[in-house]
Amino acid sequence: MTSTPDDLRRRLSDIEATEETYAGLGPDDVPALVALLGDGEEWLAARAVYALSRIDTDEARRAVASAAESDQFAVRVAAASSAATMPAGLSDTMLTRLLDDPEPAVRKMAVRATTERNSTAVRERVSEIAARDTSSRLRNVAEAHARTITS
Amino acid sequence: MAVDAALYSRSRCYFFKGNRYIRVTRGDTGPGTVDSGYPAPISNWGWPAGFGANGIDAALYSGTKCYFFKGNRYIRVTRGDTGPGTVDPGYPAPISNWGWPAGFGANGIDAALYSGTKCYFFDGDRYVRVTRGDVGPGTVDPGYPAPMSNWGWDREFVVVHYKSLVPVTDAIRTFMDDQFRAMQTLFLGSRIDVRRGSNQDLSKDTGLADFLALDVGPCLLGQPTQEHDALFAHRDGAGPDDLVVYIVQSLVNGTGNTNLLGCATHPNGQPGAAVVRTGAAWLLAHECGHVLGLRHVPRTPDSNKDRLMYPTVGWTNPPPDVVAAETTTMLNSALSRPATF
User: According to DSSP H, which parts of chain B are helical?
Assistant: First the structure.
């Protein structure tokens, strides 16, 4: 049955969301989840991204990819976290943008979402962050992560 | 600055200390104004046989009568709002005339309180409630003497500091204030006085910028992440038992690909929680409840949605409930400290 945004707002209201929070969501819920991407509660808009990343349809994946371009910080963080669950090509597109995000926290999440299956260009960007990012802690995060994705 | 006794007298109030007293003109609330010519000697009252010459223990308004207590004696006075009135014949009289049970007040009382059809008398850590009219001892209500702890004055307190990684705009300030007020009001019912500590804006600290999205992992009790360890070390202005609440833009479980609204996991010895901004009024109370030892209640039955520790922000019948066992848990926390009266 198709959910409304209000249905999902209740269903996704866990303070500490776990896998159980997203159980049972499916393709019918995608339109309402996409509507939540513009919710005034930023944490809920971000949670909609996490929910969409668990639904295996093109529409859901497109919505997750669009989240990488959001004006909302938490939504971009969710997109960065979810990039690792996307098909390789889409993940590359998202991470290429998010690894250059102006916010160090978004770059941090994008670094951690980069895997061996991402393109050489994306993985090299992680190495660049390790070498030159303005945030010293992010340089350390990227340096440690780069070692795990460089074969 | 203590007083020995206070007497309500309609348009006036009297406060007694040693062998002096003051008269105050006041309304129902507020300090009012001390009348001209006060403090004055207690001897102005003209009590007989040296009664109260060096002070009294308690005073009781009782309509057309007033009672004054000293040691194991008392007097009854007929008077209006002002002036000493007239001591009724037969006084001073022994306090035993009141017929209080179980030795209560045998050597005197600490205080007395008029409360309409009831009067309360206080002696040490016990009190009695009495049903009576303007005159006479009345009848001690069943169940008395009772312990003073029944009044709930023995509170504990916790101190909560805010440290925001999000720039402290008017919206964030409103969020902080609203969350704090909601928690303060709710926890008063649990006899916990929540005190506001410092507020610190950490948003200009570029070294902390990547914590704006704080990775708290699965947020498990006693299992802080490296990011918890690094951020929660920032406790400037907070005492070791104070709670520090960090406001971040996003709380992430990096391994679980999900987000959280709050997480009370904290490094050992650095009590606190992290929250994101939300319209959910009792998020701070929920997270501080965790820090003080509370756990989530089960999702069923549905009535659990009325409870503060329900695991979602979908509370029903607000404000949420804190049950007696949860109050005990929080009062037993080493982080809640006595604020004795």
Answer: 170-188, 226-232, 283-291, 324-332
